[in-house]
Here is the input.
Amino acid sequence: MRCPHCDHEINEDVKYCPYCGKLVKSKNAEFTCSYCHNEISKDDEICPHCQKRVKLSDRLSPLEKKGFLALVLVAAGFASFIVPAISFPLLGIGCYFGYKDKDKDHRAKDAFIMSIIGLVLEAIVFIINLINVIQNMNLLK
Here is the structure.
C-alpha cells in the first residue's frame, strides 16, 4: 500500500506513515479534525496533526450524533419535569428521534426507552396535578 500523502510504500497495518507522519486513510480514519481539517481516527482524543483536543462531535458518525441528540433532548425533558409545557415537547421529540434509529444505534434506543418512561411519568404527574386543581376549585365554591 502507498501513503496517500507522500507516496512512499508502507505496510497496510500502520496507522501513521513512518515517512511523513500523517494519518493513513483506514477504516477508522473517516473523521476530520474541526481545527486543522485533517483526517483523524475515531479513537484519537488529541489530533495528531495540530495537537488540539478533538471534539466529541468530530468523533461521532451522523447516526451516532442523532442518537446523542435524542439523549440530550430526553435529558432536558427530565430536567424540566416540573414544567409539562416544556418537558412534553422535549420528551416527544426525543422519542421521535430515538424511534427512527432505535434499530441502528444504542443511544437512539436508550433515548426512545427513556422518553417513553418520561412521557408516562409526566402524564401521571399531569393527571395528579389536574385532579388536585379540580378538587381545590370545588373547595373554593
Remarks:
- Residues 62-140 form one domain.
- The first strand starts at residue 31 and ends at 32.
- The two ends are 86 Å apart (CA to CA).
